[in-house]
From TrEMBL:
Region feature Disordered, mapped onto this chain: 178-197
PANTHER family, per database record: FORK-HEAD DOMAIN-CONTAINING PROTEIN, FORKHEAD BOX PROTEIN
SMART domains linked to this entry: FH
Role this protein plays: Transcription factor. Plays a role in embryogenesis and later development, perhaps acting redundantly with forkhead protein pes-1.
Cell compartment(s), UniProt: Nucleus
PROSITE patterns: FORK_HEAD_1, FORK_HEAD_2, FORK_HEAD_3
Keywords: DNA-binding, Nucleus
Domain Fork-head residue range list: 41-133
Protein name (database record): Forkhead box protein fkh-2
Pfam family membership, one: Forkhead
Record-linked InterPro entries: FH_FOXQ2-like, Fork_head_dom, FOX_domain-containing, TF_fork_head_CS_1, TF_fork_head_CS_2, WH-like_DNA-bd_sf, WH_DNA-bd_sf
Regions annotated as coiled coil: none
Principal localisation: nucleus
């Protein structure tokens, strides 16, 4: 007999069902019902709860107030916990790349939240682990270049400018059928600034 305060978990838990069937050596088609008490803390992170709320909407977007309502309706644990959990929901929406603020509500109060397309497939499979969106990873790869000394950067820039001007001069000499002495332009000025990087 099942506990009247228990509720079935979501279909996203198919992987859990497969694992349980395997561990208990049950046939693949055996009926297994995962349950948890509604008053107990849900086995999901805030990212998971928010994702499930948004995915429950036919439009796959929700207002913040709708996310609060969905979580409180699905898990009575949050109904008796004051407002601290709401702060956690707002924090997770704002700071995680997997959630995106989209168009404004029709009444002009608040924005809708949706799931970033890079995370949608994982969330649909029930994988709610925190991941940085792929587009952000790629954009950060450029920002992770070594931190250069500004003087070294100026030196390198000057070297590039000097090299470009020499190349331009050589091209002009070649175009005018003038002889080009590559060694005469490849000297180091003894008065130039030397920088230890």
């Amino acid at each position: 007999m099942t506990d009247p305060q228990a509720t079935s978990l979501f279909p996203q838990d198919k992987l859990s069902l497969l694992l349980i069937r395997s561990l208990l050596q049950l046939p693949p088609d055996a009926t297994v019902k995962l349950e948890h008490k509604k008053d107990s803390k849900p086995p999901y992170s805030y990212i998971g709860l928010i994702a499930m709320a948004i995915l429950s909407s036919p439009e796959r977007k929700m207002l913040l107030s709708e996310i609060y309502t969905w979580i409180a309706m699905e898990y009575s644990y949050f109904r008796n916990r004051g407002s601290g959990w709401r702060n956690s929901v707002r924090h997770n929406l704002s700071l995680n790349d997997c959630f995106v603020k989209v168009d404004r509500a029709a009444n002009g109060k608040g924005h809708y939240w949706t799931i970033h397309p890079a995370n949608l497939a994982d969330f649909l499979k029930g994988d709610y682990r925190r991941r940085q969106a792929q587009w952000k990873i790629k954009s950060h790869q450029h920002a992770q270049m070594p931190c250069w000394n500004p003087l070294a950067m100026q030196y390198l820039l000057n070297q590039q400018i000097q090299q470009n001007s020499m190349m331009e001069m050589w091209h002009k000499q070649i175009a005018n059928n003038q002889p080009v002495d590559l060694n005469s332009h490849n000297h180091v000025d003894s008065n130039s600034d030397r920088i230890n990087v």
